[in-house]
Amino acid sequence: MNHSVNYLLRRLGFYFVAAWAALTLNFFIPRMMPGDPAAIIFARFRGKLKPEAMNALRETFGLTDEPLLGQYWSYLKSILQGDLGISIAYFPEPVTSIISSAFLWTIFLAGFSLIISFSLGTLLGTIIAWNRNGRLDSTLPPVLAFVGAFPYFWLAMVALYIFGFELSWFPLGHAYGNHVTPGFNIPFILSALYHAILPASTMIIVSLGGWMLSMRNIMITTLGTDYISFAHAKGLSSRLIMLRYAARNAILPNFTGFGMALGFVLSGALLTEIIFSYPGQGYLLLQAVRAQDFPLMQGLFMTITFAVLAANWIVDILILFFDPRTRT
Amino acid sequence: MIIKIISYLILISFFILVGCENSNELKKRDGLRVYQEAQMSWIRNFNPLSLAGSARWPTSSGIYEPLFIYNSITGEYVPWLALDYTWEKGNKVLKMLIRKGVKWSDGEPFSAEDVAFTFNIKSKHRALDTRDSWGYLKEVVAVSDSIVKFEFKQIYVPGFDALATQSIVAKHIWDTIDDPVKYSNPNPVGTGPFTEIIRFDSQLWELGKNPNYWQKGKPQINKLIFPTFPSNEQVTLALLSGNLDWAGAFIPAVDRVFVSKDTEHHKYWFPLTGHTTFLHTNTKHPILSDIRVRKAISYAIDRELVVKVGMYDYTEPAHVSGVSGPMSKWHSPYLDQVEDWTTYDPLKANILLDNAGFIKDKTGLRHTQDGSPLEFDIIIVSGWSDWIRSAQIVSQNLKNIGIKAKVKTYDFGAWISRMQKGEFDLAIGWAEKGTTPYALYKGMMSSEYLKPIGETADVNWHRFSLTSADSLFRKYEQTSDQKEITEIIYELQHLFIEHAPSLPLFAEASWAECNTKYFTNFPSKENPYATLSPNYPPENLLVLVNLMRR
Question: In this predicted complex, what is the ipTM?
């Protein structure tokens, strides 16, 4: 037991350092981009504004010439206090209030499609490895690998055009219908689910193959080991051997992959959200970068970083549970 | 077995979802659905004073109103909250007569006090003074309930535009706001035709009629509806499927893509704005500083082809004066006596370059006296495909006269930073816009905004100035005499054409589409009472009060 606590504490220390490094990069990298936010807002008016407006804009944003290091300390201090500052692109809205709703939508859409794709892919991988050279095993991997090889952008556009525009089975965009009021009520929840089907399906379809193949490959190696033969010799049922003996071991690398994938999904949902007009944080990130909205960019990168670290922490605990070797 | 049951369940729930969704969406339309801002989720901000941000589009075109509205199609100021104005004391005092009988949407009466307050709050909070009005104003007072007096500390007649088109706010509301710069004004009280927020959700919001609107019987539509669209592709799909009534989006091949789907109701109007898109020439570049080289480049460009290939034929080649369309009334009557270097004449271009001493070698490329080739970069914002295509044609054209021009694309932030610092050779970009060509020529030729290379210049990116032009600008700023104003503009125009500080490329058009299935009386080529594009607040007020339900 002591070993497990030690292990978790060590991991926690590592995450702490990782978080600090991410926060620091998060501060300096956006500031290395050329241009300044006031100039970009001014330029958006394409000559309709008088140059005198620049002074008013710079004054509004309180853009200072304070040395970077000083800015960096006040940045760290306000982050520890939970204050992410005021957005520039959405002035004068605080960053936290902009991010919070977008974050929930992204977690809902990307999180659920990741969980579905992970569970379904792992399950299919287990089954086709168990019945290898069966009918499923010879059809599923090539088909899914083929679909997964399409550029995601193109696949999502085609799905939107066929199922949304031509057939009108699904809405063309947005996270819920215009007739419902957001809140905890049945019509809203149904509408949100309905709107999530098409974008989630496209995300699941392209990622399913990866989970399935990696599970299948490890599963096949595991099935060749002695303890599986021993379990067969003991006369255990096939289902028990498949799930409790083989799959439980084979799933470990997939778990690690899950923690990593969460990060990709949170930032990678960007394309999905743009194509399906989904109000998540991927699109927000694009806007923030375009407007050189440092506070918003920092806030978004920070939530992504923390979400990934948190997910990896949970994966660590899960591995501790599934893999007795980490406990000794 | 279990799998079968689950898949049936999924199918059934899917049809239930589709069913309840569609039955609701088919309800009859009673609001005008508008697209103007590319947004993914709405932020509730209706602050008409701060420019910084993210105030929703109707803030300055629906909720709040200005004293006069500039109509870009007719080129005239339409009296709105003010009825008339006079210049007094040698243009040191401007008096405006304020309309009577106007009420705020909360029922309080509107008066000259509100107007004076709006300007005085800008003097207290300089971050709100987005047109730098207090650079020339001394004081603004309400002389009576219906007269506002603007006193100038320095005569500046062109300042009228900033004063006339300022959105006026209610004194009894804004008096109590501590920090109007950071105030998001969630429940606005305005004088405009639409002021009541019916609902505000992140994805969609609705704006209802002002119960106390001063134009009796108007507006004639019940509400405006604003769904979110993140990109032009989404807007195009929504327009095609009839989910939008009014939009200001660029649609390629609009006749085929949009109009052909419903020729009776799908309309567009892309009028010329009078302004021009330029091929900017960095006049501090050792070779481009030579007028002959700039003019040669201009002669070499086949503008007809640029407009056809780059701009889908939506606009026309630029006029040599830099203004066209509704601004053509400012064209000097002596233009037939000046050199029109915007015509396509590669032969003349070659002669100019030969005379300037840039000789062609065997490969057809020109060189300077010391042997370095004539090579320029044309910088464009990445992803702005219409301008990229235009630049590629310019590059082809320049190759024909022995100049090597490479098209380079940059991210918007990097591009604008290069433009402002003067770190470019050639670039496609916009120029200053105003109600007369004065703004354009001032941005083009005034020393006021001139900065050395490497320092940020907000305008005059091409870095050119003329002392003779400077004195004309000063003269223009002092006079309110229409005849004198016209004469000065002519003189500036001739200076511009003589020196070619930057090269007009094509006339600028505004993008606007509408669907007349549910609503009518949109402006059009046949009924041009204002511009159709919603991208021109507060001019769009003219459209909002004239729209009708079918």
Answer: 0.75
